[in-house]
């Protein structure tokens, strides 16, 4: 039975965040599921991708076992009724659909923010896990390296990754630009709602910064700080932290400004203080700009930059899809050639066996020099005999006629009697 490449996905397009959180897999769970898939289903090629926006499994197997793997995930997560969540999963039950989905996810076409570069790195880490656990065979190796090369082409040939297309990442890009000449800039993030938390997670792109976070609910601050390595500032001490910080990002919800001109005027600003207001309604008084050294950006300033970048990315999508189509076509050609590879090997072994038998029969009394000459001549003859059927097999692959050609050549040369040499 022919091995098929399958996949299933639970993502922001198919499931709300509370379901995605429930199914999400940490590194330990991914490691455990890999090993169980090898043990229970004898799988040798598996890729498991789990991020805040998606949990996906790609695998090679003779049968489609999506539901069985989803139930295994349920057991790993302690979800006894995981079958009730099957409706949230998107299933890809043929090679081409699964392969195309992996390409689209990897380049960022399926990301919540189109073109998000983080997903490419997450896919690389998922692949590395498969390699480390010896769960990547020739098919997956070739597929993933084709995906990585495609990503490189997208970066080099299109504007799909240009600019910051999300509000949170545009904020990070702004901070990076303004603090570029500051050694270990001190950044204070106030408020950890949806936007604030997203900004916090993107702070990984500012590795030289000292990041402080403050939230009314300190437990949330502590959870994020533990994950990201940030310093927690109790909310009642936030004004002292504002004084220390070079950059203050505010995303708290209030009916009136939290950071006022009066408050900022109390501080001795040595060179600059960047204030970024991501709140709606605004939490930073616009008049703070009147204080010497203060730079203020609000959510509209940043969103306009993000929208411009997003427009450029959207305009690049047709070009990106063309690159993916080319890559998949090349990969499919390789995959089809892999299909005929066992037949080619059997044909080579069959002809080599005939050659050696005939040499043994007619060259018993030949000298070493005579044997060497005949060995060279017969090898050359076999290579010429092989050339035509090998070319025909490869051409048949491109015409999707490989199975018929395999059958014809197997019958002509009686290849069913030939055992493939595994050494």
TrEMBL record:
Additional record remark = During catalysis, the active site Cys acts as a nucleophile attacking the alpha-carbonyl group of tRNA-bound glutamate with the formation of a thioester intermediate between enzyme and glutamate, and the concomitant release of tRNA(Glu). The thioester intermediate is finally reduced by direct hydride transfer from NADPH, to form the product GSA.
Q: Which residues belong to any copy of the Tetrapyrrole biosynthesis glutamyl-tRNA reductase dimerisation domain?
A: 319-415
Record remark: domains: Possesses an unusual extended V-shaped dimeric structure with each monomer consisting of three distinct domains arranged along a curved 'spinal' alpha-helix. The N-terminal catalytic domain specifically recognizes the glutamate moiety of the substrate. The second domain is the NADPH-binding domain, and the third C-terminal domain is responsible for dimerization.
Indicate what this protein is called per its UniProt record.
Glutamyl-tRNA reductase
Q: What does this protein do?
A: Catalyzes the NADPH-dependent reduction of glutamyl-tRNA(Glu) to glutamate 1-semialdehyde (GSA).
Q: Which domain of life is it from?
A: Bacteria
Q: Show which residues constitute the signal peptide.
A: none
Any GO MF annotation of the entry: glutamyl-tRNA reductase activity
Key word Cytoplasm present in the record? Answer: no
Q: Name one Pfam family in it.
A: GlutR_N
The record's keywords, sorted A to Z, are: NADP, Oxidoreductase, Porphyrin biosynthesis
**Pathway in which this enzyme or protein is active:** Porphyrin-containing compound metabolism; protoporphyrin-IX biosynthesis; 5-aminolevulinate from L-glutamyl-tRNA(Glu): step 1/2
Q: Please list the residue ranges annotated as the Glutamyl-tRNA reductase N-terminal domain.
A: 9-158
